[in-house]
Amino acid sequence: MAALGENNENTPESDVPRRDPVGDPFLRTRFAVPIRPATFIRRERLVEHLDRALETPLTMINGGAGAGKTLLAADWAEHLEQPVAWLTCDPADQAPGVFWAYLLQALRAGGVRMRAVDEVGSPADPSRVDRTLLARLAAGLSGRDRPAVVILDEYDLVTTPEIADQLEFVLRHAGQGLRLVLVTRTEPLLPLHRYRALGTITEIRDAELAFTPEEAATLLDLHGLRLSGDGVRALVGRTQGWAAGLRLCALAAQESSDPETYLKEFEAGQSAVADFLLAEVLKRQSAETQELLLRVSVLDRFCPELANAVTGQRHAEPRLAELHRANAFVQHLGHSWYRLHPLFAEILRAHLRVRFPGLESELHRRAAAWLRRSGPLPETLAHGAAAGDWDFTARVLVDDLAIGQLFLGLRSDDLGELFARMAPDAEGPEANLVRAARALSEGDVERGLAHLQQVERELGRELPDAAAVHLNCALLQTLAARLTGAPGRAERAALKARLAQRDLASEALERHPELPALLQTHLGAARLWAGRFEEARAALSAVVAAHGGASTALPREESLCHLALIDYLEGRPSRAERKAAAAISDAERFSVPQPSGSGIGQLVLAAVAVDRDELDVAQALLDQATAVGHGAPDPVAAAARIIVGGRLVLARGDAQAALEVAGSGVTAAVASPWAQEHAALVASAAHLAEGRPEAALTVLDEAARHRTACAVEAARAHLAAGRLAEALRVLDGVHAAEPDGGPAITVRALLVRAQAADLAGDGATARRLVTQALRHARRERLRRPFLEAGPWIRPLLATEPAQELAADWLSRRPGPPPAGGPAPAPVVEPLSARERDVLQRLAQLMSTEEIAADLFVSVNTVKTHLKTAYRKLGVNRRNDAVRRARELHLM
């Protein structure tokens, strides 16, 4: 910065004023640019922004106490290659004469001297300034070749409107000769809207002044502190990048043997940060405003009406607006809502507990009562819990029909954690309903049922206005019936729910579309367990067809997955795959945790992968489903896991393990016909694989022989035992019973008939039936039926047109090596058709997400296919996988 005496050769020293209009000597410290501490860091992003001050007449650095405003301006001023006039304002500057005398002296002290300034003189009257003096000053500045830079620090201390008008007059008429920089905690009384409209103002505000994690790490490093990235981000989050807070925390942490732990766990109310904020912010306010701040500190956010309700005051609105304008750590969120700076709120709460012991709970209770009428449910519950009023909190959850949110995955963890603190002496049906819901959501069905029985006893006392209690109780009873495999109880509970809905306002039900969605999902699952597929499909399809957004994402996913399981059980693997993949993709779109629910979607996809002989993919999907650690035990999922697990180990050649899995069974109040049937199919296939056809027939339940799948397996066992006629009799007996069986069942039935024809010496019929089976299987890419058929089928697959139909998907032989080059190493294990589908899209430079969308599968499924393909091809990268697949003529 230029030296003090520049351009003063025409000004006699005796003409320079040495006293202000009051007669006191000028305080030279007010003209001194503040010295930066050794730990100051120059933040280039702010300096670059502040450099625009040289292009606009007005610049405002506006931030709260300790935001780093003054040090930023001081560092910038020291690096300018021109004179800068610095003035630190003072409360005594409210008199216009005193203010302008100091500002003129700042120009001289900063080396911004010129004949016009010296000819202006100095105000003689502390209370006023002659307009002519201001005009001369503006005219003199406007004639400069280079603009004068004037920085007014702590300008918020100057509150006289007359001074603001005078300053704006000089700024406007000085033209390009003045660059005014105001460092302030509040917006000045200047016509800022005019400068903003014309684009002639440079502004740096609190949000920009906040330290980034990278800047904070550098600052801590200057204090000799080296924190982990997570530690720095946590500190920045707690302080919101507040400069003074970071510096004070760093200084305190230097005294600790474990700085990172200290900065993570320090008590804000007992720290230098607290002393700073209480002195610089709280104690500067009036008694009424201090009380307002202390009492709203219990609120995460607040509007004037809520603040009035909590504090008992009437005039929160103007006080909050002024606190925000003054950058007093009150942040405006929009639409008349505010919040306190988190660290400031933490300190105020500690101060509140000391000054008003016991008041905090009452403030939470008032907030909960107001929010119950006008605010969002999560905040109402949070304040009710903080007040320790659990009867109120449980009643709010039940009356709002929001108990289903304990099962939705989106907010279930938050609600579970909140009600985990519920006092054991909380009474009433609402409290017991919440206990039952938490128990069922955690998989403790027995405890959940005990609480539901208590609710039913309480409902027997004819409680008034109990429709919401009845509906929530029926929902939980339906869930409990589903989880215990009791479809009859589920139907009765669902009926109770429908009756209770009649007594509730439609608006309440419309606010919570997840409640009927959960009810129908549980009912559909119970019907599926009972084997009533069409009734189950009706309930589940209603959930899928409804549009409830994120709140019904999990019920929709579960319903789609159950519908997919029905398709699979009916022998339609491709249809099942599409539904399961759509369910998982839809859940991912709404950020529902994956795998979610009971993992049925992954089980269906695994079952389809087994049918296609994609065993690695099936194992990965089965592992995903098994890894689901939350939620209650679900008999449908348990049965599906047995079926898929048994078929997978059997496909890998371990018949004994398949028998053990199939015999493990599912605990339920009522046996499921399809669960028994498919477990018997796995066991029968395992016996046949080990050459025991009689044992295979024994495990097939006689009552299920009318089912096509069981009949086909029984016929296969008879053929293995050499009973051709009996095999044909069994097949003929069920052909008309299930004419609409899906392709998976049709393919197996055709192959058994082809085997029978082959044994009877009717080669033409055998070839025709194998060809028909190939046509059905090709569309679904079903390989396991052909691999399990036995050696008799191999000659038939080598004939035309079977060979042509089997090419590219059933027989996976790589083509010849490229001419003129060495043959590539063979693939140890053939790629599956789906793995080749994924590689084809990789070659088109599609992303993982694009491949998933194109194939109607989830991103996780694509990643599993890629991982398996890489292993089979012996590569680690995408480009290498595509290149090698082309070398092997697999694409």
Give a verbal description of the structure:
The protein is mainly alpha-helical. Among the domains are: 13-209, 3-Layer(aba) Sandwich (Rossmann fold); 213-266, no CATH class; 389-512; 514-633, Tetratricopeptide repeat domain (Serine Threonine Protein Phosphatase 5, Tetratricopeptide repeat, Alpha Horseshoe); 833-887, Winged helix-like DNA-binding domain superfamily/Winged helix DNA-binding domain (Arc Repressor Mutant, subunit A). Helix 36 (693-699) runs antiparallel to helix 37. Residues 1-14 and 812-828 have low confidence and may be disordered.
Key words describing this protein structure:
disordered N terminus, 7 strands, mainly alpha, Rossmann fold, two-stranded antiparallel ribbon, 47 helices, 891 residues, five-stranded parallel sheet
Instruction: Compute the number of helices.
Output: 47
What is the correct CATH architecture of the domain at 13-209?
3-Layer(aba) Sandwich
Spatial order of strands in the largest sheet: 2-3-4-1-5
Percent range for β-strand residues: under 5%
Instruction: Classify the secondary structure makeup into a structural class.
Output: mainly alpha
